[in-house]
């Protein structure tokens, strides 16, 4: 046994990379779980190809999982990894340029044979030709060592090789002084019915750890102290799971059954998976024949007095738009979750983007207002989904919740909320007549609105005396009978818009963080750019850079102080993973000369990118001020 | 949550819909809304509406426990005229809405009123999936073989060669046979009737209402404006009856002709006088194998209306989708001791791996 120096570091980014069949997502998940249990703050981002099993050993088939963990608040999965685990030459080729100079690259040396290198166009072996001189390269024969560790097992060679991801996990766990206990517990429950597979995986895991411990391949081990976090009980959660749970919470608080109509689509499918598990929580899920039927079944359930929800991603939003129009017209509660991905069309199915904002706001024919909320971090999807339910039910209106692939698949620690403090949602179903007809008889008017919220009564089938017909045709204000009257249509159109605008009463003001108190520059984001923007601002605030940060959660209606906040600053910069959609809205609404910064690479902004941006603007503003 | 699904074979379509008190006599009037009916004078839709409003009181369910859903088209105005809950939705999508309603509410009798364009063109996908799932709802498809509301274009059931505004030189589209489509979707109840035959229409709707699962009823219905006389051939009886009225257990005889098994084509039509009575096929809509039903729908003369079978082609028992969806939920809710409490939700949120920061 050798002794290793243990070095304390504040934060580390690790990227696991391999063929899409190498089990890198599972390896990353397990490492994340161990890290979280140890008490580090963290953020993760899987990055995988849209092909389930692209040809082995090719760049197209490389699947990545990155996490950043630290002893302080972590807002992003990190930009340049400090450690890359590459299970084959393709994984190395796809990622080595992004590793931080001075970082570690751990490869499965057994996979670096001539055939594999030729396939990728390597003239020489990159492990020995000096091209990786900037890094500490550790060529570990993972495949053969895994096979050796499993020699005694009655498994095929192929099955034994499949455990090499556990070898890698064991080795990395050793490198970061992580216990193997939680992964062993996980494997025990996962392979309860396959003791052979369980024992093989545990043996491979331990072999990886022992390899680190017994060799001098690594001169050093690292330790990242637990982060200082608010007291409470935590778990790690992905955005898609948090969204599912937020919807369950909303329905539970409203005392309504949650009814999901959905259709599988990347990267939203995990919400369907999660909710399909929750029969015990009275959740009804219907995997329908297409996206249209998904929202149709959800709206039907809402008409029937349930909380209808549909989940999708961009292409599905296009298909659902006619039904969203019907939901606007019939003024029924409905939650539509759009886990945005790169577009247009099939686009980048597994990559992230924020380019559905204008579609969410305006992507229907006619004047068709819909409330739009955007979650800002994986764990925040819970609160955002709950809020979408609350607004939909209170105002009898469709609400779109925008998340994205980065939030949906990414994860972070979540401080569990105290369920008892989550406010009630009152569906307030109609039970009685609310008008009198021409003959003076009591009757029911389905479009007689609440004077405060403008919400119409929600009378569900089965309620005696309130039978009524609604639909896509314009209805007379109040009585709800079909009306083609010009003045009525004008009035109803404005009423629908006004109703959504009145949701502002339930929306907090836009908050500005400006620790220096003297910022002329406001950096304003929405949705998942919260992570990199916050990390950049927090880094710069440490050195007193005068920049203020604000983040929009409500895109329609906008918080009532939005214009005032924008006008308070000499310059407002809005970074977005689209070509300037929020900037366009803010310019149009408030006549403020927003500086738009855009990126559509299928990846979140990098923190240094935002820091540079802020520094440039701060310098520019200082220059301008000097001249003035 | 307390409904008993133990003996599905005995369940009627309205099994879980509350019945009105035995003292209350439901009348047609209770199912008539205050809206003026606005179909063209002479439209076949009037007959369907009248037959529907006439027979539904028999079901013993109050109007508020009925939901009529429709898409777009002349037929889809139907919900406005029935004083129940109703939704006049978007083109072709009624089956998806109705699936959401029927699955989440077993206490409602759910009807889809649709047409040949709404159900078979823009809504074809939803129709076949509602049928194969066997959602407990009733689909009444008014087939006038034309688009009426958009003023006369050919539909998915228009015969090839039909001259319309969008096919001025004759349609080159091959039409759907709605019965064969429904059978191909493995529908559990498939029937055809004619709007002009009030008694047959009423009897067919009644049978559809009592079926548990999805029932599909094609109603041949004349459009007086854009396709008048499309079904006139059926009235012509000079060379013998052209309509075969199928009744369970009865030999399949229409006028001078009857149906017998044919080794080559499955079934064939022959003069009744030419065969021994024992050779005439007896109708069995409950046969699980849809082969004979399909052969009847395809029988020689059916596509050109020389010999058209009407009545119930198929009526079999298969668990309804919505019953099974609710049953799964009920099983897990019951096993856990009832609907979730705050504590249950808290443990869901926590999951299996938590840690405490103090």
TrEMBL record, chain B:
Cross-referenced SUPFAM superfamilies, in alphabetical order? Thiamin diphosphate-binding fold (THDP-binding)
Q: Which domain of life is it from?
A: Bacteria
The biological process GO terms on file are:
cellular respiration
Q: Which UniProt keywords apply?
A: Oxidoreductase
Q: Which residues form the Thiamine pyrophosphate enzyme TPP-binding domain?
A: 72-219
Q: Which InterPro entries match?
A: 2-oxoacid:Fd_oxidoreductase, THDP-binding, TPP_enzyme_TPP-bd
**GO molecular function (one):** thiamine pyrophosphate binding
- Asked whether the UniProt record includes Oxidoreductase among its keywords, one would answer yes
Record flagged with keyword Zinc: no
This chain belongs to the protein called 2-oxoacid:ferredoxin oxidoreductase subunit beta
Source organism per entry reads Propioniciclava tarda
Classification from the root reads: Bacteria, Bacillati, Actinomycetota, Actinomycetes, Propionibacteriales
